[in-house]
């Protein structure tokens, strides 16, 4: 009987050693940089560490209890041998059976506890992963007001649990205003313990951070467009140019940084003109081909969006890591003015919208607008939206449309074309031209795991979304655009 117990103790010791070797092997596996830079990992890693500590404490307590039990059994056995002159072998077998039965009961209780913990964890995970079914894959006009969803529908709730567990040290970013939606203003970056992992150190201050995301259902509905008066121009014209299926990308910006390769320090998607790069001129654009119908040689471009769950582009010197996402739908819509008719844009007019450095410059020129299909009346300006399953992320980029009547560009690329006022009217001394609205729809990974390409110091802040346009339409096509808008037609 003593030999049996010694054998059991030896087997237990071997199991503990084997478990330690497996744990060491698992710990030694290091995720790639793009995985480290997943904002969802920043929020969930702290909870995982707490769970691991609790599990280790529970294992240690179980080993201590087993050791105390073995010692008590040894003492009882010695005492029984001293007093056991009247005990026979049958009594000893009964004691052995009782001891075995007690050990089996303890083992069964431990298995039941472990099974309960696993089932509870699976239930919590399943509840966190469930999303409200939301159709909405079709790209809709952001002006539309969808029906309110039932209050008891589940939402993208995984982020609300993750955001309370930041774990990485990061440099504080400026507090930003929230004029367009999300109910929580971004604050300082998450705090936490330092790490010796070089990949994690490289991403700890990269951004975006968990507080840069918001569940779209937490954003209050609002009116998207100004009300048209009797003199307004209600028509629209859509230029069909594709989704950049031909992979026309570069980190240039010939409007803001002409002649400078990698002048943007982030990658752009291009549709329309096939030649656009840092060295584009009016002449080169006019002589190039296009992806647009009806001979529209205009160039339309914007920073790419990336999936941070996929390891790609991890050696980028500007920190734009992750897998590039191609938009599921791109709508380039020219719209009218709420208070007046529109006039034709001059050819080679250059216009920008938004501020690629708004996180450090402040919100004065920021024009980012994020939403989800099915929720287009909910707009967040400084947070990435978390959309329910089946709903696509939307980027809505409105361009200024009040032209000074003389210039095709200006020193700051803004003063020659400005935005209408809150009522939709153009300032005195300017003329309303067709207003370009880009609407880009994306299928992104669930949770806070995607990011916009950006300048390194902007930390992939969603407020930095922006876009650029240069009009290279033939004059006859521009006249068609103006006619459609002023006559209230949809072309």
UniProtKB/TrEMBL annotation:
<dbReference type="Pfam" id="PF09362">
    <property type="entry name" value="DUF1996"/>
</dbReference>
<dbReference type="InterPro" id="IPR018535">
    <property type="entry name" value="DUF1996"/>
</dbReference>
<feature type="compositionally biased region" description="Low complexity">
    <location>
        <begin position="166"/>
        <end position="196"/>
    </location>
</feature>
<feature type="compositionally biased region" description="Low complexity">
    <location>
        <begin position="59"/>
        <end position="131"/>
    </location>
</feature>
<feature type="domain" description="DUF1996">
    <location>
        <begin position="255"/>
        <end position="471"/>
    </location>
</feature>
<feature type="signal peptide">
    <location>
        <begin position="1"/>
        <end position="24"/>
    </location>
</feature>
<feature type="region of interest" description="Disordered">
    <location>
        <begin position="35"/>
        <end position="207"/>
    </location>
</feature>
<keyword id="KW-0732">Signal</keyword>
<protein>
    <recommendedName>
        <fullName>DUF1996 domain-containing protein</fullName>
    </recommendedName>
</protein>
